[in-house]
Structures are given as C-alpha cells and as structure tokens.
Design a protein that fits this description.
20% strand; 7-stranded antiparallel β-sheet; Vanillyl-alcohol Oxidase, Chain A, domain 3; 5-stranded antiparallel β-sheet; Uridine Diphospho-n-acetylenolpyruvylglucosamine Reductase, domain 2; alpha+beta
C-alpha cells in the first residue's frame, strides 16, 4: 500500500494533492525551490494528526518537511519529490495566557502579529519581532531561532521560550522545558530544538515567556552619515557607551536609495548611510538625547523625535527594505552576524567584495546586535555562480571576524555547504550524531542544515 493511500485512509480530507498547493510547497521566500513536487500536503489541525502522519512516515521511511507559513529565507521548509509536507498552519489556538506568570501556551501555526494583537488586550507581548512578523508563524520563528529589530534589547526567540511540545519522528510526544522562570533539570532540550529547522522533531506547542507592554514614551533618533563605515563606527560607539536602545538599525547608501525610490521620497545624499534608533520606557527621552549626542560626536546629522507616530513613520523606511529589493529583481538575502565592534570591518569587507566582483550589495543591519543582511541582486530564478562566489567570500569574512553564517534566518539548504567550515569537523560530526538520536531513520527534513551526501 502506498504512503499516499495510508495517509488518505488515516487522515482523509486533511491530505491535499492539489497541484497548486504542492507547487507552492516547493518554495519559500528565499526564491529557492526544491526539485520535483511533494507527494502530498497534510493540513494538521490537532496534535494527533501530526503524530499519525509521523507514524506513517516512519513506517514507510518517507521524508517529511514541516511547514508553517513558508516565509523562510534559507529553503528549510521547501519540499520536493518523494516527500510529505506536514503543514501546521491550521494549528492556531492560544491555549492559555497567564498574566500573573507572564506566559502563554500556543499552537505553532498562529502568526506572530496575531498572537501579539491578542496579548495586547491584556497588556502583554511576545518580544521576538522578525520583519516577517505579520506573515510568519510562531512555530516557524522557533524553528529558525528568529530575531528582529527589537532583539538587541529584548532578546531573540531563544530568550522567549520556556517549553516546547515536540512530536518525534516515530510519533511520540515529548513535553520539553517548564513553566517556571528557572529550571535546570537535565539537558536543555528546549534550547536544542530552537533553531533546529525541523530536523529534530515537529513543534506542536510552545510555552512562551511574555513581557508587559513597555510603559512611557518611545523616542526615535535618525542620523545621517557621509558613508556606511562612519555609521557603523557610530553604532559601535553607542553600544560601547552602555546606552541600550530598543532598536538600532543601519542602512547603507544603496539600500537607502532603493527605499527612498520605492516610497517616493527625495533621493538621499549620494553615499550617505543612515542609523535609525528607538528608545522606550520611562528613560526613553534621556536615552535618546544621550544617543543623539554620541552620534553627533561621530559626524552624524541627527534628528530626534519624541512623537511615537512620527517615530513609526521614520522606522517605516527601514521596514520597507524587503519590498524595495523585490522591486529591483530577484534577491539573495544573506544573514551574517559579527561582534558589534567588528561592524565597521565587516562593511569594509562588503565594500571590497563589491569592488572585486563588480557588484552592488545593498546592506542593512541590526546594528544593535551585529546582524547584517547583505542583498545580492540578480535576474532570473537561479542564483548565478558569480553571486555564490561573492557570497562565499562574505561568509568567510564574517567567520574570520569572529562571527557566524547566520544570525536569524537559519542554514536551510542555501548555506549548508559552509556549515562544517564554521563548526569544525568534530562539532559538525557531533551535531549530526545528535540529530540521528532524535531521527534515526533520517526522515525529518533530510538535506536541510546538513548536506545530504555528508
């Protein structure tokens, strides 16, 4: 009996073989698509549906790709020939909110923004805020270890998850972590699962650490610099001064020019780079004024706004980056991260790569935590070899500076060839062995993170 027949007999109408649905499951927002079409998409609505799917997959040794909203940027949720897609998008329940304990228990398919809309009614929020927060799921955020603009002050997903409900490859259900603020019993498997990109199990529930909505003002500081290195040096100076902004975003000249063109704003000064910084809470105004003084001392032409609505309009320029890049062509969006003091040196490396390869690489950065997003623009659906050669140099430069291949997007398919170089042979082998403990048959998201021929 075929795996498709087994799925239909067990799960009925939840099994989808519509050609358009299968085609959509081949790709994510990275632009990369898997070869061939998957067998079917299973639209799980309950934990039991996930367990039954995994039992059938384990019995038939059929690969499974777990998928949320498909907004990833590394190809981790792309499914191809011979694979089952296990969609969690219909599992959207908020099972519990405890304002007294500052926690919520949710299903993985709820959108980040939808969750925070509901939490705000009780004066609460979940801090991770990826640029895709309006369209990405909490489960997807956990799978990639997502970050966002606010993570310099409020942390990334890893800092905001207390526990995970995980279905293993054979269908068993584990409850990892705890509801308490502290807990060191045994190995921290919750932390291990976060950022594992569907290679260790299926996240079917999460206990999230919440925050109360921040009281007080939100102030915004915008500073323009003659070049990106000066802007990067100024952001490093803010960090070194000990002032903690909620958001500190950097845009180089190419990205700033593209966004201004998209939004119909006057063209910026040629070569100019921009820092957009927000402070919040009771000390927001004093912190904004202190940051503005630091930026001025480093050559920035600075404007300070104490109006929340105006600040959001200023920040909208940075949030329009992805749309601006999409308007210019196909984009490979990269995600290297370096120590914050190394930001100027990393921008020097990007400038060198641009010169040597004849490319323009519009780059934005979460300057508050050293996470850069260089954008490689090209025509057509496939990344040209010359772009991969330039990206290779970018990755190696980040590693040389003490950084990493990915700060928040994950490895997926697109960066797996460089994983062993960053980890080293011993750690790379150890990580593969750990994955094999969770998934001895190798059916969970095969070929993602680790190269299939390794």
């Amino acid at each position: 009996m075929s795996v498709l027949t087994l799925l239909k007999e067990s799960l009925g109408a939840l099994v989808d073989t519509d050609e358009a649905v299968l085609e959509q499951a081949r790709a994510d927002r990275s632009g990369h698509a898997a070869a061939g079409r998957p067998i079917a998409v299973v639209h799980a609505e309950r934990v039991e549906h996930v367990q039954q799917t995994m039992r059938i997959a384990s019995h038939t040794r059929t690969p499974v790709v777990i998928r949320g909203a498909g907004t990833g940027l590394a190809g981790a949720a792309n499914a191809g020939s011979g694979e089952i897609v296990l969609s969690l998008r219909r599992m959207t329940a908020i099972r519990e909110v405890r304002p007294d304990d500052l926690l919520a228990v949710v299903e993985p398919g709820i959108l980040n923004a939808d969750l925070n809309t509901e939490l705000a009614r009780q004066g609460l929020w979940w801090a991770p805020d990826p640029a895709s927060r309006d369209i990405s799921t909490v489960g997807g955020n956990i799978a990639t270890g997502a970050g966002g603009l606010l993570c310099a002050k409020y942390g990334v997903v890893r800092d905001a998850v207390l526990g995970i409900d995980l279905v293993l490859a054979d269908g068993r259900l584990l409850h990892l972590g705890h509801r308490s603020v502290k807990g060191v019993t045994g190995l921290d498997l919750t932390a291990l699962v976060i950022g594992s990109e569907g290679t260790l199990g299926v996240v079917v529930g999460a206990t999230l650490k919440l925050r109360r909505l921040v009281p007080g003002e939100t102030c915004t500081v915008v500073a323009t610099f003659p070049d990106v290195r000066a802007a990067a040096a100024a952001s490093a100076a803010v960090t070194a001064a000990g002032v903690q902004p909620a958001i500190m975003e950097l845009m180089d000249a190419a990205s700033l020019t593209a966004v201004h063109a998209l939004l119909g704003l006057p063209a910026p000064t040629p070569g100019a780079a921009q820092l957009t910084i927000q402070t919040d809470g009771p000390a927001a105004r004093a912190e904004a004024d202190a940051i503005a003084e630091i930026l001025r001392s480093h050559g920035g032409v600075t404007v300070v706004s104490h109006d929340r609505a105006e600040g959001e309009q200023l920040l909208a320029i940075r949030r329009s980056m992805h749309a601006a890049m999409a308007s210019l062509g196909t984009t490979l969006i990269e995600d290297v991260s370096v120590p914050r003091s190394a930001m100027p040196a990393m921008f020097d490396e990007i400038a060198r790569i641009e010169r040597e390869h004849g490319l323009t690489i519009p780059t934005v950065a979460h300057a508050g935590d050293g996470n850069l997003h260089p954008n490689f623009l090209f025509e057509g659906p496939d990344v040209p070899p010359e772009v991969w050669i330039a990206a290779d140099e970018l990755f190696r430069a980040a590693i040389r500076l003490g950084g990493t291949l990915t700060g928040e997007h994950g490895i997926g398919v697109l960066k797996r060839r460089w994983l062993a170089e960053e980890l080293g042979d011993d750690q790379w082998q150890l990580q593969r062995q750990i994955a094999a403990v969770f998934d001895p048959l190798g059916i969970l998201n095969p070929g993602k993170v680790f190269s299939p021929d390794a």
